[in-house]
Amino acid sequence: MYGTDGNEFTYKFKSGINYFKGKNSSGKTEFYSFIDFMFGSSEDIRKKPWFTDSLEKATMIFEYNSIEYSISRTRNPELNYLNYSDEEESTSINFREYKEKLNAIFVKDINHLKEIRRFTEEELTYRSFTMFNFLGEKRQGAIHDFFDKCSDVRYSIKLAPILNFIFNKNLGRIHELKEELNNLLEEIRVLEDNFAKYEFIYNRVNSNLQKLGLNIWYNGKNADEIKQKIDEMKAMHVNFIKKNEKNVADLEVMYNNISEQIKIYENSIADSRQFEKDNKNRILLLTKLEGLLDENNTFDYLVSPLKNLVTELESTISFSKYVISDNTVKELKKQREILKAKIKSNDARFKLFTLEEKSKAIVLIEDCLSTNIQSPTEELKAKRKKIKEIKDELKILQNSDNSQKIKELSQYITKLYESAKNISSVVNDDLERDGFKIQYLKKGNILQPMVVEPISDENKTEERKIVNYYIGSMARHTLIQLCGYLGFFKILLKEDIYPLIPILVIDHISKPFDQNNSKAIGKIITTAYESIGKDRLQLFIFDNEEYENLAINPDHSENLVNESKTGFNPFYVPPLAKTEFENINDVNDDWGL
C-alpha cells in the first residue's frame, strides 16, 4: 500500500488460512472489501473519506498456476496496472482492460468458458464467479439463497444458469443439440436469402406477365409453361381469346368472404385450444386436491363437484375438430391466394402497353426464369419446426438436474456440519434429532435442514417421514452457510473448469456465536481442508476474536491495530483518533481505520 505522503506498508499472506484480528472500527470490513476491489470490483474508493488524501495506490502480488502476477489499482478507477511480478510496471490500463486481463488469467481453458456461456446464454466472466468467494457480515446466517453477493441483482440473475450448468447431467447431449441448432440457424439464413431472391423474381415475372396479357400467373413451378407461352407469342401463335372470367368486383367479394371464413375458423381454433389449456390447469389443480384427500378426506365434499365439472368440460373438447379445422383453413388460404393473384392480374386488363414495353417484359421474364430458383417455403417451414423441437428439448435438458451430484453435495455439507459434534452444543442438539441432514435444494439455492418425524394418518397409523426442520438460531444458520460455501468449493475446484479465484474471504463470522460454540468454525474449516487441501484454497478471515477462541490454526495472523497504525489503512488517522486515541471505539466501523 502506497500513501500519498510517500510512505509504504506491506501485508503478507500465506497459503492456507490468513487471520486478521481487529477491534471494532479497525477496518476489518474494509479490508474484506478491498480484496474484492483488487480483483476488479467496480467500487469507487474515491467516495470513501478514509482513502482520500491518504492512499495513493495498492499493489497485490499473487501466484496462480505457478505464475506470479502483480496487479495495482489507484483511487482513479481508470488507472490500473497488471504485469508479471518480475517485470517493471508497464503503461496504465483502464478498468475494462484490467478486468479482461484478470479474466484471461483465471480462465484456464477458453473452450470451457465458451461451453459454459453457450449453455447459460450469459456473458459470464471470472467476476460472475466471485459470488462463491465472499461470505460477509451483511447476509450472515442466510440459508435461503445463501451466497452473500446474491443480494446484488448483478449476481443473482446469473446464479440460476450457473447452477443449472454445475448440476446438469446432459452436457454432452446439450452440446450436440447446440451444434445442430447453430447449423440449422445458418441453413435458415441461407434459405431466407434465397427466399428473398425468389420473392423478387416471383413479383417481377408476374408484373411483366400482366403487360403481355397471357392470362397466366407464375407460381414458382410453371416456368416451362410460361416459357412456352412466350415462345408462342413471339411466333405470333398466341390465342388471345380469354375464358369467361369473373370481374374484379366479383373476385373481391369472394376474397373477402374467404378471409372472413378463415378468421372465424382461426378464432374458433384459438378459443378451443385456450379452453383445452384451461382444462389442463383444472386437472392439475384437481390432482393436487386429490393428493390432499389422501391425507385427509374431510374435504371430499368440496373436491367431488370439481371432479365432475372437469370431467364434463373435458368431454366437450373434440380433438378431431382441430385436424378438420386446420385442413379447412389451409385449403381456404390456398383459394385466397389464387383469388389474390387473379385480382392483381385484372389490374392490367384496362391498361395499354406498347410493343416496346411488351418486348422489354419478355426479356425480363426470360432473364428471371433462367435463374431456375425454387421457392424454399416448405424447407424453411420444416427447419423452423426442427429448431422449435430442438429448443424445447434443450429447455428440458438444461433444467434436468444430476440428482446424484446434488445428493453428494448434500452429504458433504452434512458431514462438515457433523464434524463439529462434541465441540458445539447447537450441533449436538441437531444431531440428536432422528435422521438429521442438510439437503441442498438447487431451486432457490437453499440449505434445508431435515429430520425424520412420525406422522399419523386418519386411522392413527404412524408413518415415519422426512420433513423440513426449521431452526431459528443464527449460529446454526451461519455454520450451515459456511458448510455450503466450502461444499461448493470442493465441487468447483475438483472439476477445475470454472474461471474461479481460489480464495474464500470471511468477515466477522464469530458475531452470532457464544464462547462455547465458536470453536465449531475452526473444526469445520479444518475438516474441509482435509478433502480440499490448503494448496488449492486460500482463506482470509477478519474477526475481533482471538483465533484460538474459534479453534482456528492460521498459517499467518496479525493484528490490524498496533503501535504504528490504527487499522487497515495505515496512512489514515481519523480526526477523533488524533486527539483521543483511547476513544477509538467510538469511530464508525465503516471508516476503515
What does this structure look like?
It is a single chain. This protein has 593 residues and is an alpha/beta fold. It is 50% helix and 12% strand. It has helices spanning 28-38, 95-106, 110-120, 153-166, 171-212, 223-234, 248-295, 300-315, 319-346, 355-369, 377-398, 403-418, 425-431, 474-495, 519-532, 575-579; strands spanning 2-3, 17-21, 55-64, 67-74, 80-84, 134-135, 437-441, 446-456, 462-468, 503-507, 538-543, 556-559. The strands form three sheets. Strands 6-10-11-2-12 form a five-stranded parallel sheet, covered by helices on one side. A hairpin with a 5-residue loop joins β8 and β9. The radius of gyration is 37 Å and the shape is flat. The model is unreliable at 318-324 and 578-593 (pLDDT under 50).
